[in-house]
Amino acid sequence: MSDDGDAVSRAYREEWARVVAALARRFGDLDVAEEAAAEAFAIAVERWPADGVPANPGGWLTTTATRRAIDRIRRESKREDKHQEALLVHDDGPAEPLGVIDDDRLRLVFTCCHPALAMPARVALTLRLVGGLTVPEIARAFLEKDTAVGQRISRAKAKIAAARIPYRVPSAADLPERVSGVLAVLYLVFNEGYLATGPDADPVRPGLTGEAIRLTRLVRTLLPADGEVAGLLALMLLTEARRPARVAANGELVRLDEQDRAGWDAELVAEGHRLVRERLASGEAPGRYQVLAAINAVHTSAREFRDTDWSQIVALYDQLARLDPSPIVALNRAIALAELDGADVGLAAVDRLGEALAGYHAYHAARADLLRRLDRRSEARAAYDRAIELAGNTAETAYLARRRDELA
Fold this sequence. Notes:
408 residues; elongated; sigma factor; 69% helix; mainly alpha; Arc Repressor Mutant, subunit A; 19 helices
C-alpha cells in the first residue's frame, strides 16, 4: 500500500469515531453522521494521493464530512425553510447539555450503549459507529447475515431517534451505572473473539479481541479516573497476552497448565500488571473487572503453572463472589480450590452447582477433569461427552474429545 493509502487507513482507525461523533452532536442524526463520515473517507481515498495528506487529517475529514452532511440535509429540506438553512451554516453548538465530560466520542459511546437498546443492537451499533467496522465485518464476526446486521443497526438508530435518546454523557449521578453498561458491551465483544461461541467460527479471533481492546483504550482515555475501565483494560490485556499459546497447531485448545509461557506477549503482560498495581495503589475498593484482572495478574506472574499462588486466587474469587455471587464465579473458585486443597474437595464444590449449571459446558468439562484426576474413568467419560455436546468452540471440542478418548 502507498504512503497515502497508509495515511487514509491510519486516519480511519484514529479519526472515524471522532468524525462521526462530531457530526452526530451537530446534526443530531446518526444516519447523517455515519453516511457523511463514510463519504469523507471515500473522498480522502481519491484526493490524498493526488493532493497530499493534509497537515490535520482529522480536521480535514470533519470539515469535508460536515459539508457533505449539510448538502444532504439541504437536499432533503424544504427550500423555503430559511431557519433550517441558517442552522446548518451557523450552529456549531450541542443541542443537549454536555454532561460531566465534554467529549463527542464519549457521547457517541453512551448513545450506542444506551440501556433502552437490546444488547445485540448495542454491540452492532458500537462496532459500526465507534469502531468503524463495516456491516459485513460485523456480520462475519458474529456469523450472521449482512442483511440481519444492517437491519439491526438501522432499527437501533431509528429507536434512538424515535425515543429521543439524548446524545450526551450521563449526569454524574448516573455515570457509574451507565459506564458499567458500556463495559459490558466491550467485554462481550472481547469474549466472542477470545473463545468464539459458534461452531463454524474460527476458535480465536484476534480481530474482535483487538477491536475490544482498542475501544476500551479509548474509553480509558476519556475516563482515566474510572477504576473499572482500567480493570477491564487490564483484564483484556492479560488475557490477550496468552492468545499465541492458546491454540495448538492441530487446532486444539491448550489449557493454561500446558501452555508455553515463553510464547505469551511480555509487553501486554507488563502493561496489564502495571494497571493492576495502579488500581491497588489507589486504595479504592475494587469492582468486578478489577478483581478479575487481579486474578489474571496472579496467573501471569507465575513462571510455571506449578508456581501459581492458588491461595491468593481462591481469596480473590471469594472477594469476587461478594460482588458477583453467580454460579459461574463459584465454578471458577471450585476449580482453583481443587488446585489448592485437592481434586476431591474441588469436585464436591463443583457438584453443588449441578442444578444451576446443568446446561453449561464448562461445568461438565471441569467435572470431567476432576473425575479423571480421581481415576473415576467411566464418570469422567460421561462428563466429557456432555461437555462436548454443549460446547460450540471447535478448538475446545477437539481438546475435550482427545481427553475423553485417552480414557478409553
